[in-house]
Known about the structure:
It is built from 3 helices and no strands. By secondary structure, the protein is an all-alpha fold. The protein has one domain. Helix 1 packs parallel to helix 3. The chain is elongated, with a radius of gyration of 15 Å. The termini are far apart. 15% of the residues are buried.
Amino acid sequence: MMGRALLVMFIILLLFGVLPGILLWPYTLNTWLEFLNKPQTVKWWHGMILGVIPGLGHATIPVAALTWILMLFLK
């Protein structure tokens, strides 16, 4: 029973990193690539991989918010 609960908790924590990563890392990285006049090449699965990495997965929300705020003034 304890093993199943740990597995469910692991999956939930993984989803909290993967789902924002799928949505926000491609936005953030592609926005900066566009700003630097480079081709936008970051796909959703790149964001998923970054979202699994501890630390980076949870940093995606503040980084995306900072990117959005900076792009209000830089573009």
